[in-house]
Each structure stands twice: as structure tokens, then as C-alpha cells.
Amino acid sequence: MPDPDAPALSVVVPAYNEQEVLPEFHRRLAAALAGIGMTWEVVYVNDGSRDTTLEVMLGIQAADPRAAIVNLSRNFGKEIALTAGLDHARGAEAIVVIDADLQDPPELIPTLIATWREGFDVVYARRNTREGETWMKKATAHAFYRVMQRLGGKVQLPPDTGDFRLMSRRAIDALLTLREQHRFMKGLFAWIGFPSKAVRYDRAPRAAGETKWNYWKLWNFSLEGITSFTVAPLKAATYVGLITAIGAVLYLAQLVIRTIFFGNPVAGYPSLLAVVLFLGGVQMMMLGIIGEYLGRIFNETKRRPLYFAERVLPSRMG
Ligand code: UDP
Ligand code: MG
């Protein structure tokens, strides 16, 4: 059913404990979208914040009918919060996904729209610099994108690209048919295809509040990315096994020849132990890799809904 009052553009904003930045975010967004010549709404998703984020959102909505609120029943994580926002976005022509912390400048949205009007379904914002982030985070992020590119095969992740992007309605409809539990959004965005183009920008440091990321989370995020994107680690396991087996056969041959020609002095306790521990380690690691995939299969087979919304307050347009 087409909605006659639907705005042309939806801006989807996942927010977890963002009470400090939201008013400023909304002000900057409204200013940035003033001249785009499209009707628009902004969908704020409160991802189970522990602070007053929901109250701040309600305040924004009371003052601005273009604001919609999706209040999730608990914290589900950014990827699912984003999906909830996309599910409830009414934008008939295009949808923008942006972080609440002002690291993605709302002022770039008119540029994204201009590029979309040139005929691209997906216009993603590509970072030039990562100001205010440590070199460790930059280096690990860089390494992650390079690994993903090697593993990606036909589906290529654009490097240095976050979730900040504009997508056409048909691209979003395609994306929303993917309902898997393990949602590596960058991978899903890439998987659906459609003509895409990058727009470059400078990523600012967080305006206020704290990043929810740490290295343990980043590591898990990378694992999530790799395992939901490619089965290359399973293939790698096969080859590591093959190479170890060949190595073992060669070593065995050497032992046999040595015993035949030079007798058997029964040395080799250290080498025995080294080999046993090495093989044990390799096997455990392979089991771990299989386990990563198995756990994900387990989660997917439960076919649970992705989230529950405690309440949905649509924008009051038209
Ligand atoms: N976010 C969310 N749920 C979470 C964690 C984060 O909705 O569990 C939101 C957060 O409010 C922000 C965006 O996702 O709008 C990006 O989060 P953050 O700035 O912590 O990540 P970073 O920019 O460091 O990648
Ligand atoms: Mg951020």
C-alpha cells in the first residue's frame, strides 16, 4: 500500500546513550536538509539506552513532526537497531543511514542526494581521514578492510566506508529481504549490489559521549564480518591440514631413512612433544573455526525475530 503522506527521504539514526549529542544532531540535520527540495523525516532508533536518550527523542519529536521514534525493548546492538530503523522508514524515494554522534557530518547529505540523482542506487561516504582516533585503531581498521578485500571474491567491500550512506528505495527493499541474525551490515550492503558510487569526506572525532567500541569488540566484529561474509577460513583449514599432513609424511620418511642407515639411538623426546603439541594446537584451532560457523548456524536456525520494539511513534507528516 503506497502511503500518500510518505516523505521522499528518510534519515535513519541508531542511538545508544546519545543524550548529549542528539539535540545538536537534530539541529544540524534540519539545517543541512533545509535546501534539498524533498520532504523528509528522521527515524530515531533508541537501542535500549541507559540514559535519557528516549526522553530527549520525545522532546525532539514534540517540537518537530518530522521526527519518528522506534524504541527497542532492550539494547540489540547497532546493526539490528539500524535494521529496525530501516523497517520503519517511510521514505518513498531514498534513505540515509547516519550515526548520531556527529562523526558522520549531516552536511554531506545534500552531496549524497546529488550523486543519487545522477542515477546511483547506493551512494556511500568514504572517509579521507580518521581524526581523533588512535593510530592503532586506524591500522587495525586498515588491515581489516584489506583482509576482507582478499576474502571477498565477487562481493567486494568498499574500503574505509562505514554505514553512512544513501540508498534508493529499491536498494533498501532488497536489503530488507535479508533477515539473518548475524548482520554484518557492510557485508549486506555490498551483497545486494546495484549501481554505487563513493563520495569522499573527512570523518570528525565524536562530538560528545563515548565510543562503545574497544579492541575485544572490534575483534569480534571482524570475526562476525569474516564468518558472515565468506567461508574462506574453512577452506584455509583444509589446506593447513593438508600441508601439515605432507610435512608429517616427509618427517616420517626422514626418520625411517635415518633409522635404517644410522640405527635408532632413541632420542627425540623433545621433538615428539613439539609435534604432539603442534598438531594438538592446529586441531583445536580448526575446531574453533568450525565452531564459529556452527554457532552461527545454530543462531540462524532458531529463526527468531530480529528485535522487538517497545513502541513506534511515526513521523507526523502530510
Ligand atoms: N549504537 C547503537 N547501539 C549500540 C552501539 C552503538 O545504536 O549498541 C549507535 C551509536 O549511538 C551511534 C552509532 O551506533 O549512533 C555508532 O556507534 P559508535 O559511535 O559507538 O561507534 P564508532 O563510531 O566508534 O564506530
Ligand atoms: Mg562514532
Automatic annotation (TrEMBL):
Residues 10-175 form the Glycosyltransferase 2-like domain. It is a multi-pass membrane protein. Keywords: Glycosyltransferase, Membrane, Transferase, Transmembrane, Transmembrane helix. It is found in: Membrane. The keyword Nuclease does not apply. It comes from the Bacteria. Its main location: membrane. The chain crosses the membrane at residues 236-257, 269-294. This is Glycosyltransferase family 2 protein. It comes from Roseomonas alba.
